[in-house]
Give the backbone structure.
Amino acid sequence: QVSLVESGGGLVQPGGSLKVSCTISDDLSRFAAMGWYRQPPGQQRELIATITRNGNTVYADSVQGRFTVSRDNAKMTLYLQMNSLKPDDTAVYYCYGAELVRGVKYKYWGQGTQVTVSS
């Protein structure tokens, strides 16, 4: 069983930056795609950033141009750099990894890290 552990959340002022990390217990190459969801208070979880095995990235319109997803295979860590943060970015941020095994898709989740954007 693989584990994903987020870290780096916290309180940041509007316009500020924050980088959250997700440390994985296995080789990142097992995942066809990895990325980040977030869940604002009282709302559904939404996909905001994806990075594929070959390094392609996709972003939700709400974070395009402000957030950057990256990974370090040697450190077995996924990152989300968040710039120009807004109060609407306040949410619990979850990392995930998705793999395909004999035609069956598996998705693994971290426990979440709280990001609060407020003055």
Remarks:
- The longest strand covers residues 91-101.
- The CA atoms of residues 71 and 111 lie 18 Å apart.
- The mean pLDDT is 96.
